[in-house]
Amino acid sequence: MTRGDSTGAGQHSGRDTGRGTEKGAGQGTGQGASGEAPLAEIAAALRRERTRAELSLTEVARRAGIAKSTLSQLEAGTGNPSLETLWALCVALDIPIGRLLAPARPSVHVVRAGEGAAIASSQADYQATLLTACPPGARRDVFRITAEPGHQRDSDPHMPGVVEHVILSTGRALVGTTEATVELHPGDYVTYPADVPHVFQALEPGTQAVFVSEHT
Amino acid sequence: MTRGDSTGAGQHSGRDTGRGTEKGAGQGTGQGASGEAPLAEIAAALRRERTRAELSLTEVARRAGIAKSTLSQLEAGTGNPSLETLWALCVALDIPIGRLLAPARPSVHVVRAGEGAAIASSQADYQATLLTACPPGARRDVFRITAEPGHQRDSDPHMPGVVEHVILSTGRALVGTTEATVELHPGDYVTYPADVPHVFQALEPGTQAVFVSEHT
DNA sequence: CGACGGCGTTCGTCAAGGCGAACAGTGGAC
DNA sequence: GTCCACTGTTCGCCTTGACGAACGCCGTCG
């Protein structure tokens, strides 16, 4: 790995040349585009999923058709698996690849009005901000929401993997998970996992928002 | 993998498996096929995302800190990238890693698309209106838009099948195809095909809208 | 007790992934 | 026209991932 640069053993992948760029990491909920190889996370996830399935390392290796030594090293955080290896493991564990690579990310991510990577336009009086890109295969339904203050609308957790997005149009509202609620002002954007309890509470009369629900 | 031993799967020597490319199959079931080699898909996704970002192969390779030869081979469908390589590419392209590895998931989930426009809420002071349901497999990117009146923003046709949605938050705007333009007021929603010339023209200062781009 | 079968780890070996250099095409500047 | 900067591709070389075998470690059976 990392032929030219950095340490040989280098966990840290070195090739973060692009690191410099780091444009606000648009991405919204993305996996945080952290620059280092997710070796440790892979290792942890691998072991986690394996124990969850109550399988032995040997058994998983056998099912995946890879050497157990390889799997052992992987779970130890050593090594840098190839795509085929990863794929085989995911099939063996019957999990989507993303489960290994996209660690649970229960954070609420806000893009304030005026924040976010603005996409340059040839016409200066037009601005577009990418709030979140869409993972392929995902389903996204778009709602318009009108809410009045007073009660607080609690939602029970939806199916795992559901993510919700809210862009406040007018008024004010408290939005987010019950543990991490944010006050939104017009133009603000927030996204949060919806497979945990979450809330939408209008703070002003005539509060309106655009609501996007994303089912994986 | 697909070494000598193995049980069942993966006879092909792996690498050229994908030659077929473009298996329409995938989609719904995700990786259910347990078939090998998301190679072709990686290759396609890689090139797709790269062109989407309007970057050259050389540039992406440079940002990722990998040899352009490697990237070239990857986009050609040859090779079996390591995790570090994949990760570096994802960082360089500023996309979540799952975007490359696609297939969503296994769970059979019911699609209740297009059911009922207005969704009743248990709390009367909360209203949600379903503007549009999402066709499975579609990709939707969500933008926030700020526009000032004056010029008219014309857009050239995008790729076939692209559909755009606009929900106006504040102000007024003319939106739609060049042949059928509509004036939007706050709360209004419009959708139109974007594979023909279309337009977004703010009519009031500080016009804001939520913009959803849908690639099939 | 020793033998067996399970586990996960470590050790050489070999092929394959990744690298850099050299390669062919393209478009613009002069 | 040549030169230059750039694209993406194809070639040897070499590091490194993946392999199988051997290892040490428990339980359990004979």
Overview of this structure, please?
Chains A, B: It comes from Streptomyces albiaxialis. Chains A, B: Residues 23-33 have a biased composition (Gly residues). Two copies of one chain form a homodimer. The first copy, chain A, has 216 residues and is an alpha+beta fold. Chain A folds into two domains: 1-17 and 123-216, Jelly Rolls (Sandwich); 22-28 and 35-103, lambda repressor-like DNA-binding domains (434 Repressor (Amino-terminal Domain)), CATH 1.10.260.40. Chain A is 21% helix and 28% strand. The first copy, chain A, contains five helices and eleven strands. The two termini of chain A are 33 Å apart. Mean pLDDT of chain A is 68; it is low at 1-33 and 103-125. Strand 4 (139-147) of chain A pairs antiparallel with strand 2 (126-132) of chain B. Chain A binds a DNA duplex (30 and 30 nucleotides) through helix 3.
Task: Please give a handful of descriptors for the protein shown.
homodimer, 216 residues, alpha+beta, 434 Repressor (Amino-terminal Domain), 2 domains, 5-stranded antiparallel sheet, DNA-binding
The helix/strand order of chain A is: HHHHHEEEEEEEEEEE
Using the alpha-carbon principal axes, give the shape of chain A.
elongated
Category by helix and strand content of chain A: alpha+beta
Portion of residues in helices of chain A? 10-25%
The percent range for strand residues of chain A is 25-35%
Oligomer: homodimer
Number of domains of chain A: 2
Number of strands of chain A: 11
